[in-house]
Known about the structure:
- The structure holds 2 protein chains of 2 kinds.
- By secondary structure, chain A is an all-alpha fold.
- Chain A has one domain (2-86): Orthogonal Bundle (Helix Hairpins).
- Chain A contains 3 helices and no strands.
- Chain A starts with a helix and ends in a 5-residue tail after the last helix.
- The model of chain A has no long low-confidence stretch (mean pLDDT 90).
- By secondary structure, chain B is an all-alpha fold.
- Chain B has one domain (2-96).
- Chain B is 74% helix and 0% strand.
- Chain B contains 3 helices and no strands.
- Chain B is elongated.
- Classes of the chains: A mainly alpha, B mainly alpha.
- Chains A and B meet through helix 1, helix 2 and helix 3 of A and helix 1, helix 2 and helix 3 of B.
Amino acid sequence: MGPFISASKIAMVILSITIFFCLYRAVSGPTMLDRVIGINIIGTKAVVIFVLVGVVFKNGFFFDLAMVYALLLYVATIGFVKYLEFRRLDK
Amino acid sequence: MIALICQWVGIFLIFGGTFFFITATIGIIRMPDAYNRGHVAGKGDSPGFLLCLLGAWIYWMTINPYESLKILIIMLFMLFANPIAIHAILRLCHRTGVAPCEGTTEHDITASGKQEA
């Protein structure tokens, strides 16, 4: 239990609170693209929280999870935007 | 001694990243239209996750140097992926003709969504 572990816990709590405010934007966005922006920010914060969880539990397995989540977030956003633009995914 | 210095530098970095995330959240709630929100999302998130992951990397270097390269890979990937994703979203906003907010002085989108000549 060093000071870095306690600081990571505090940062994780702050990030979790800010995720709820982004969730407000993702739920009640006026347009569809506002929701996509809100979900993108939520995913970025989730990657940071995964890495901090790995630091707190002293387990490098969570870094793999964060890597896969970052890749999935990027592919999901690009796929969603392509679907909204062309209404199909093979272009 | 080195471990203690890395710990305090890491604490400073992750709280700096948390500050940037908080400013990005305030912007995404308060900004008036989708373009401004995308601007805040692209500019506020990138230093946020860069500083947070840099702090975690510096701390994890003192514990397991080989595993810490994973954090560096995540950082480098998201440094390229996040602005590209936000750029794709905002380009779609512009192409589908999402109306800008009141008070925008210069824009080339008409009300019907077509681009002016």
